[in-house]
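> call design_seq(struct)
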C-alpha cells in the first residue's frame, strides 16, 4: 500500500505549504491532542506561528472503543455522529457515563499541558485548528464549537487527510478548509501514514515547551 505521508510531522509541513495566505494573518495553531499536536507543531514551526491545544475527546462505543459515537469538547458540549442510536449497546445513560469519563480525562490533560503552555486568549485572533485526520468528524466538530465560542476572528481547519463525507460536515463550521487528501476508500486515518505510532503525553508536553511562545502585548511571537 502506498502511504501519503511518512509521519505526522511531514504531514504538518505539507499543510504549511498550502497556508501561506493564512500565515500572513499571524494565526495561532490549535492542535487536537494527542496525534494532532505532532502535525500542529510541524505546521506552526513552518509558518512561524504559536502552537496551543484545543481539547476534545471522542465518545467510545461500548465493546468497540475505536469506534466513535460522538465527541465532547473541554467546555462540556457534546456532538454525536449520525446513526449513533443504531450502535449496539448505546444508551443515553451510557453516553452520559462516557461523557463524564472523557471530561475527567480532559481535566487531567488540561492540568498537564497548561503547566507548560498557559491558555492563550483567542478573542480577535485568526486560528488554525488541526488534527492528524478526520474520520467521523465528531472530535473536530466539538473542537470547532468550543473555539467559535471564544470570539475568534476566523477559523481555518487544516488536516492532512479526511473522509470526503465527513469533510462536508466540517465545511460550514469554518471560514477556510484545507485538506491534502480525501480518498474515496477511507477506513482509518492511520492507513495513510507510514509511521503512525501512538503519541504519549510526554511528547505533547515536549512539543508545547519547544514551540514559539505566545505574543506579548507589544510584539510578535519570539522563539523559546
Amino acid at each position: 500500500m502506498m502511504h501519503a505521508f511518512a509521519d505526522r510531522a511531514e504531514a504538518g509541513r505539507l499543510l504549511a505549504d498550502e497556508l501561506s495566505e493564512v500565515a500572513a494573518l499571524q494565526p495561532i495553531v490549535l492542535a487536537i491532542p494527542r496525534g494532532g499536536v505532532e502535525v500542529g507543531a510541524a505546521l506552526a514551526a513552518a509558518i512561524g506561528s504559536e502552537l496551543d491545544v484545543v481539547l476534545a475527546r471522542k465518545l467510545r462505543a461500548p465493546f468497540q472503543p475505536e469506534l466513535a459515537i460522538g465527541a465532547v469538547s473541554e467546555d462540556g458540549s457534546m456532538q454525536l455522529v449520525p446513526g449513533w442510536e443504531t450502535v449496539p449497546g448505546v444508551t443515553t445513560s451510557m453516553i452520559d457515563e462516557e461523557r463524564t469519563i472523557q471530561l475527567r480525562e480532559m481535566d487531567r490533560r488540561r492540568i498537564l499541558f497548561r503547566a507548560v503552555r498557559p491558555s492563550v486568549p483567542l478573542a480577535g485572533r485568526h486560528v488554525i485548528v488541526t488534527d492528524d485526520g478526520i474520520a467521523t468528524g465528531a472530535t473536530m466538530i466539538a473542537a470547532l464549537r468550543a473555539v467559535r465560542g471564544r470570539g475568534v476572528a476566523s477559523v481555518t481547519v487544516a488536516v492532512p487527510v479526511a473522509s470526503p463525507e465527513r469533510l462536508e460536515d466540517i465545511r460550514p463550521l469554518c471560514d477556510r478548509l484545507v485538506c491534502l487528501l480525501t480518498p474515496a476508500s477511507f477506513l482509518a486515518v492511520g492507513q495513510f501514514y507510514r509511521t503512525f505510532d501512538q503519541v504519549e503525553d510526554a511528547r505533547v508536553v515536549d512539543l508545547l515547551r519547544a514551540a514559539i511562545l505566545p505574543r506579548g502585548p507589544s510584539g510578535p511571537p519570539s522563539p523559546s
